[in-house]
Every structure is written in C-alpha cells, then in structure tokens.
Amino acid sequence: MPELPEVETMRRGVLDAAGRRVESVTVPPCACRPIAMSPSQRQLDRRMKGRRIDGIDRRGKRLVIVLDNQDRLVIEPRMTGILLVADPPDVDHLRLQMDLSGAGVNRLWFWDRRGLGTVTLYREDEYRTAIDQRLGVDALQISTEQLRQKLSSSRRCIKVALLDQSAVAGIGNLYAAEILFAAGVDPRTRCDRLTGPQWRRIHDQIGLILEDAIRHEGSTLSDGTYRNALNDPGGYQNCHRVYDRAGQACPRCRDGEIRRIVQAQRSTFFCPRCQRRSGLHSTLREDFHSHDRSASLR
DNA sequence: CATATGTCCTGAGAGC
DNA sequence: TGCTCTCAGGACATAT
C-alpha cells in the first residue's frame, strides 16, 4: 500500500530516468482490464514522445514526472501499484511501459496487481488546479503550526484526520498508526481536543517515522506486493510496532496488548496503555520519547 | 461548508 | 479438494 516512504523509494529508484527522452508510451499486452489512464494511451504516447524528462518529483503519495514542456505525468500507485526498472514480478499485471533514450535505465514499467492505480498527464495549469491546490503540504515539509492550523478545529479523530490528503499529503493507514503510537496519542482523540504538546509530538513523529521508513525503503507486507524499483522488498515492516500486530504484547510497555479497532472503515492498531487521550504525560512517557528518538535515528 | 459512507479492484486466507 | 466469503485501503463520488 504505497504511502509516502514507498513512493519516495520509487522516486529514488527511477531518478536515472531524468534527462532522458521518452521514446514511446505503450500498454504491454496483459490479461487484465486497463487501469484508469488519462488521456488515452495513444494520446499519452503522442504528447510524450520525444520529450525530455526534466525531473522526477513526489507530492504526498503521488509520483510526478516533469517533462520539458512542463507537462506532468502523475502516477498514483494506490494499493498495489509499483514503478520498476527491473523485471516485474509477473507480466500479467503490467499496466504501462515507457521506453526511454540512452543506455542504462531505458525502460520504466508501472505494474499494478489490483489495478486501482491511475496514470494522468496534466498540462502545467491543469496540474496546478488538479494536484497542487487540492493536496495539502507534503508530510515531510509541513510545519507543526501548519499541521495544527489545518486540523486543530476538526471534530474528527486524529487517526482519521491524518489520512486526509488535503490536510497533509503522504500519510496512509499504516504510518498513521505507527506515528500515533510513537507520539503516545490515542488514535480516537478528537483533533479539537489535542493539546499543544500532543500536536508537537505528532508532528515530530511524522518526520521521524517517515524518514526512518524511507531509510528502510518502505514496508513490504505479508502479501509481498510492494517492491522498490529493482523489485526488492523493503525492510520497514520489521520495524512496525503496532500495525497488524493485534493481540501481541506492546513493544513499549510489554504488559498491554496491541488492539485493533475500526475507524472510518479502516483498521487502527494501538496500545491502550501507551496511547492516551490526555495531553498530560508522565516522566516514563518522556523516557519513552527520548528512547524512541534514538531508536528512530539508529 | 464538514464529515461520513459506498465503491472500485484482485488475490490471500478462513471456514466448511 | 474446491467452493464461497471476507478482507486489505488508496482516492473519489455521493450522501447526510
């Protein structure tokens, strides 16, 4: 389920494509129905052929390929989409192929088992209105004050609000759970009841957890779907402390059990002992956070 | 306006 | 063994 760390890993994995020219954009023969693509493959090919790739950016969970005429190809991996320069896990779910000029990395593939991903080519002004203005500040760029300003008047639970891409872009279900655990905040806390220190801890942990996950090249869950551009699994799944660990002992307090609840039709995992609604926290909790920080930087 | 719910999709795993 | 059912959660459309 690519979230910010996985998409950032994809971006880094295909950076070699920058500076090359697009030779063709095609849909490989595959058994699946086509993914949502706009405009059509024929139009994509026509508009991109011969263009130089000026940059490969990321905004939240979206990968943005910037062409020399300032058109932008936006790839949304959603649940199972990945970008590859190596051979794909199978050829049955290849959705798009981009052939590039030059030696070395001269082919990019978008592979997506479930096919919920999308590929869209925007002109510069379309990109501004459809992507730039609709998405919140990237989770790695947002300040504590910006985060607070966006969410502190909301009545939603903090876990649900963190998934709102128009507030802050890049956090999904998995990292929301890990961030709130590290921040010691109960995921059911309403945004408008969070204290200043809680907002600060949440903001700190957004940066620390996401950066740590990027260092580990993202999370490859038990279904093995997520891969980096070389088709290698990530490593951050071994660092998860609450996600998909219901019933296991809490890695911090050891006594409590990780609980699974459902919020907005999505699983939330947390430790009821370590994650409190109250803004007050004990000395023990401070120890937890300083320990947490050094662990994250390891 | 803010917030909540339904929908798409495929394959893994559970239960019988 | 093979069938049916449920679930995973990204983003958006529609409903409240």
From TrEMBL:
Domain of life of the organism encoding this protein: Bacteria
SMART domains per UniProt: Fapy_DNA_glyco, H2TH
A UniProt-annotated Pfam family: H2TH
Domain FPG-type, first and last residues per copy: 241-276
Catalytic activity: Hydrolysis of DNA containing ring-opened 7-methylguanine residues, releasing 2,6-diamino-4-hydroxy-5-(N-methyl)formamidopyrimidine; 2'-deoxyribonucleotide-(2'-deoxyribose 5'-phosphate)-2'-deoxyribonucleotide-DNA = a 3'-end 2'-deoxyribonucleotide-(2,3-dehydro-2,3-deoxyribose 5'-phosphate)-DNA + a 5'-end 5'-phospho-2'-deoxyribonucleoside-DNA + H(+)
GO molecular function: 8-oxo-7,8-dihydroguanine DNA N-glycosylase activity; class I DNA-(apurinic or apyrimidinic site) endonuclease activity; damaged DNA binding; zinc ion binding
GO biological process, one term: base-excision repair
UniProt entry keywords in alphabetical sequence: DNA damage, DNA repair, DNA-binding, Glycosidase, Hydrolase, Lyase, Metal-binding, Multifunctional enzyme, Zinc, Zinc-finger
Required cofactor(s): Zn(2+)
Keyword Ribonucleoprotein annotated: no
Enzyme Commission number(s) from the entry: 3.2.2.23, 4.2.99.18
InterPro entries reported in the protein's UniProt record: FPG_cat, FPG_Glyclase, FPG_N, H2TH_FPG, Ribosomal_uS13-like_H2TH, Znf_DNA_glyclase/AP_lyase, Znf_FPG/IleRS
Domain Formamidopyrimidine-DNA glycosylase catalytic: 2-117
NCBIfam families: fpg, PRK01103.1
Record's subunit section: Monomer.
Family statement drawn from the similarity comment of this UniProt entry: Belongs to the FPG family.
PANTHER family: FORMAMIDOPYRIMIDINE-DNA GLYCOSYLASE
Protein name listed in UniProt: Formamidopyrimidine-DNA glycosylase
Organism name: Crateriforma conspicua
